[in-house]
Fold:
Amino acid sequence: MSFINPTFRHPELPVNELGYTKKDYEGTISTLCAGCGHDSISGSIIRAVHELSIPPHQIAKLSGIGCSSKTPAYFLGNSHGFNAVHGRMPSVATGAAMANRDLIYLGVSGDGDTASIGMGQFTHAIRRNLNMVYIVMNNGCYGLTKGQDSATADEGSASKKGDPNPFSSIDLCATALNLGATFVSRSFSGDKEQLIPLIKAAISHRGFALVDVVSPCVTFNNNAASTKSYEFVREHAEATGTVDFVPMREEIKAHYEPGTSTEVTMHDGSVLHLRKLEEGFDPFDRASAMSAIARHREAGKVMTGLVYLDRTAPDLHEVLDTVHRPLNTLSESDLCPGNHVLENINASLR
Amino acid sequence: MNATDIKNPEYFHKVVDCQWACPAHTPVPEYIRLIAAGRYDDAYMVNWESNVFPGILGRTCDRPCEPACRRERVEDEPVAICRLKRVAADNKTDSEIDQRLPKVPRRKNGKKIALIGAGPASLTVARDLMPLGYEIDMYDEQLEGGGMMLSQIPAFRLPIEVLRQEVNYILDMGVVTTFNHYVDSLKGMLEQDYDAVFVGTGAPRGKDLPKLPGRQEAEANIHIGIDWLANVAFEHTASIGKRVLVLGGGNTAMDCCRTARRLGGEDVRVVVRSPFADMKASPWEKEDAMHEDIPIYDNHVPKEFVLEDGRLQGVVFEKVEAVYDEDGGRELVPTGEDLVFMPCDDVLMAIGQENSFPWIERDVGLAFGKWDMPVVDEVTFQSTNPRVFFGGDSAFGPENIITAVAHGHQAAISIDLYCSGKDVSQRPPPQANLLTQKMGVHEWSYDNRVEGDERYLVPQADKKRTLKDRKLEVELGFDVETAFYEAQRCLNCDVQTVFDTPKCIECDACVDICPTDCISFTANGEEQDLRQRLSAPAGNLAQDLYVSDQLPTRRVMVKDENVCLHCGLCAERCPTAAWDMQKFLYGVTKAGA
Structure:
């Protein structure tokens, strides 16, 4: 078994605007099971961040407990990281985001860490529209403890050694929509062409961005009776449309026939091109998104793509009107502005 | 593209770049692993079976394998393959090797072969045919076997004991040698009762510049390089003037200048017509010459030998520059600068060699073609006289030792077929074996970790001593510890990534883990189109794409072989063992097999 990645890379790897290759965004070698969908998501994160030319030190990756939450060791080895208590990643992310608003917060969680033990934390981070990317590596089972059904396992789905699941599942995208999430998307670990632009869009979104990624557990939940297996998802995934992400600094190279593409400008100036959108589906309308999810579920399909986007809602910093600089850049004179300021405050209260 | 046919042994053979580049197709990674394991006798025999002269070639080979080495494409320098080979020879147990040499049957098969010349080609033919029961007579004008390895390669590069040992492995099989005898008539040979005659007489004539002014008059101080080297080797020549000009830029020029330094030359210079980068000499031989304080003057064309009172005073050169046309053709154009005069006492001419067959009568049914060279079949090495075979430099002009060995193996096959009354054009297929290296879950029977070390230098003896003694070997060879580290640099390119399409579940794990982005899953297309669409640029057209059958998602797996590290991570991360690491052992079939 290899524990160290070879140092050699392809000699003609593309470099991004910072002069970095993909290698500068990699982590240590994965210790997850061979073929785990999570590794593909790690690979997609590496490519998305590299292609966005984000300096690695401007990202903080946070996670809880579980197979999914081990993955930050396997990507962005030069970024900040925090491995929190089970289900408590959103609290840590909230604290960090409040203290330093300049970093990009990349939360990585699993279905257990999010939909069971961390459900309370997850919902409140959404409710507050915390400015973070929240990636759920969703395999419908507890892989780290031998594959018991999780709260996102579909009713009737059975894992490798298990009986059909008698409970209805929690749909994280539907939950997030209900709670007022401002960016909701779903993808599949085996579809990088869709996942990478979605991660990029989530990063460029200001506010809470959920990326729920169906990620098969090859060891416990990749069998014929499972609805989270590679084969099932490939056969039943239905994209609501195609997402092309064009970063702010890049020229738009592709040309779209008028009427076939919806252009969305994100907060940082990047542009999303939504193409081939399903008829009657409007990703800017919460009710339309919710009904689309319900419609797909009833048809036995896994709806993927950008589900919902709201660029106008204020994020937590705006709501709280916090200071515009990271706390660690505030000097003593900023924090103790002097007696005259105190006197002004006192005078205003008299 | 069609799915790659990995049943064709040449596909995986080509992936083993070093072995593919070697004229004799020596299984390089196989013996490098044996050296790393300290199994020097085994490593020596793997070499000996294939290239016949591991100790000699480990010091003198032109190393076509090294520029081909995959390591050069991911790092800077190739594995020191050649000098590792020497480690096997240096550390072998002689008594053990004696036991392993093939046994020669006492009962002969009744066929008798004459070998003309005792160089690497003839010796290889003898090596392959003696164990089959042939009787072999070998003729050479020199006093012992070895051919140009004896007369032209200086002892400070190849000690005579090393040469004799490996030549004698073959002669001791019972070859009947007639040395100190110049064969002056092929007709005479054909009139004897030989079933076949093999000509391995090399390219014995050094080129001259007969028309240059002063050439004839300065004869006493102008020497033909290979003849002069032979005279030094046989101790007819023991000194040279203090100021020596060596004309030419090949390996013979390098041997001449370094030998001159040892025979009294103090101001020795190499002067060559072409630019430094275009010189025919191997880069390491140029380095060794410069290390011995021999400057190389490039872009200088000799114009005249200058004499005074009937004695050579120096050479006049015209400065030129190389102009290249679109087809890569080169013209040396005078720069118009003043002529350059270089004073000297002696001149050594090493400007090339050519074949010469004054001893072959033109009426023995043996056709001669272009450049007055015999017409020889490139596969069978048979001449137009079916009883006469050629090999080594005498077949197609000057090459190198390893090429002569490769010729010898093929000529031996042809002679064996011919003597058995079979069709010489029916060549035996190569031997190929593909064997999984899986030992357990994520465990391989080869060391798959890729070491980041840079190439190790071969230590040399003290220059003060080597320049005083022309027989003192300059290179000391790797010690076994350094050899181990150097051997670990080998990427094990013979351990192939073998893909089994029906097992693949398209989870992308291999794509994600591959450190060099070799693997892609994509829609099929024409090769040119596919090369544009892979995970990383696939611009090295000399390296193949490995394409699978169509997968359930109607995509194919495409692997660019170019910079694959053979680290096995794809197979380790594959949940269904669709990827497996399998050792591919390829061997050129020898005569009688």
Notes: Chain B touches chain A at residues 73-75, 441-443, 448-450, 452, 505-509, 511-513, 515-518, 536-537, 539, 552-553, 563, 565, 567-569, 572-576 (CB under 8 Å). The mean pLDDT of chain B is 95.
